[in-house]
Design brief:
- With 259 residues, the protein is α/β, with parallel strands linked by helices.
- The protein has helices spanning 20-29, 87-99, 119-140, 154-159, 211-219, 241-255; strands at residues 3-5, 15-17, 37-41, 46-55, 60-69, 77-83, 104-109, 147-148, 152-153, 175-180, 198-203, 230-232.
- The longest helix has 22 residues, at 119-140.
Length: 259
C-alpha cells in the first residue's frame, strides 16, 4: 500500500483534502480511485489510513479511517555530519542514511566540498533534501522525520557541534563523536560503544577532510559536547564518501541496534 506524508493529521473521521503532490502521485501516477485506501504518516510518529471519497480532475478528498502511534525508530541515537559532496552523491547519502535510522543530518561545508551553495540556492537545496527524507521515510516505514540541520561551515560546527542533537546536561561519557579518516589507526571494531550513547559520525566530502580540519577537530574536546572526537578507519581500503558513512551506520545498527 502506498504511503504518503501528511503533516498535522486531524482526528479520525475527518475528511482531508489531498495536497497537490499527494494528489499527483496517488491519482495521476498510481491511478487510485474512489474507495481505494492509502497509508499516511505525519512525521511525528503517527500513521493512519485514508479512504478516497471524492476524486476530481484537479483535487481529491478522503476520510481518515484510523490513526495510531507506531514507532519504527532505531534504538540508537545516530547523527550524521556529512561533508558537502556532489549533488547526486549528497542525495544518495541522505536517502540511505534515513533508511538506516539516523535521527539528524548536518550538511557540512568543508575546504574540499565540491558543492558550494549559499543564500536562496541553499534554501532550495535544503528543501530538496527535506523532500528526499520524506520520500525515504515513506518507503522504509518510518513515521518520525529525522532533523535536517542547515548547511553549516566547518568552523561554525566545531565551535558549536551540539546544535540540534546534544543537550547541555549530557555527560561527555554519553556522547561519542567519530571522525572517519584514512590516517586513523583505530578501527571501528576496536571501539567500546554502548547502545545508550549518542553517536555522531563525521564524514568528509570527496577527498576527505583536510589535514588542518582533521587536526583542529581532534585537538581538543568540542565545546558544546565536552567529549574528544575520535578518528577511526574502516580497514585497509579507502571508501568513497558516499560509501563510508553508510557502511558505519549499517555496522552500528547490526552490532548495537535493531538489525
Amino acid at each position: 500500500m502506498p504511503r504518503f506524508y501528511l503533516p498535522q493529521l486531524p482526528s479520525i473521521g475527518t475528511e482531508i483534502s489531498l495536497p497537490e503532490t499527494v494528489f499527483h502521485h496517488a491519482v495521476r501516477v498510481l491511478r487510485l480511485r474512489v474507495g481505494d485506501t492509502l497509508a499516511v504518516f505525519d512525521g511525528e510518529g503517527r500513521e493512519g489510513l485514508v479512504e478516497l471519497r471524492h476524486v476530481q480532475k484537479q483535487q481529491a478528498t478522503g476520510q481518515l479511517l484510523s490513526l495510531v502511534e507506531h514507532s519504527r525508530e532505531s534504538p540508537l541515537s545516530l547523527h550524521l555530519v556529512q561533508g558537502l559532496c556532489s549533488a547526486e552523491k549528497m542525495d544518495w547519502i541522505i536517502e540511505k542514511a534515513v533508511e538506516l535510522g539516523v535521527q539528524s543530518i548536518t550538511p557540512l561545508l568543508t575546504e574540499k566540498s565540491t558543492l558550494r551553495i549559499d543564500g536562496e540556492r541553499a534554501l532550495r537545496k535544503r528543501q530538496h533534501w527535506q523532500d528526499i527524507m520524506v520520500s525515504a521515510c515513506g518507503q522504509c516505514g518510518r513515521n518520525q522525520l529525522p532533523q535536517l540541520q542547515p548547511i553549516t561551515r566547518f568552523s561554525d560546527w566545531v565551535a558549536a557541534p551540539a546544535s540540534g542533537w546534544l543537550t547541555a546536561n549530557e555527560s561527555s561519557q554519553a556522547n561519542r563523536i567519530l571522525v572517519l579518516s584514512p590516517r586513523a589507526t583505530t578501527r571501528l571494531s576496536a571501539l567500546q560503544l554502548i547502545p545508550t550513547q549518542t553517536i555522531s559520525l563525521v564524514v568528509g566530502p570527496e577527498g576527505g577532510l583536510s589535514p588542518q580540519e582533521e587536526a583542529q577537530l581532534l585537538a581538543a574536546p568540542l565545546r558544546a559536547s565536552g567529549c574528544l572526537p575520535e578518528a577511526i578507519q574502516l580497514g585497509p581500503r579507502i571508501l568513497r564518501t558516499e560509501t563510508a558513512g553508510l557502511a558505519v551506520l549499517a555496522a552500528l545498527q547490526v552490532s548495537l541496534g535493531d538489525c
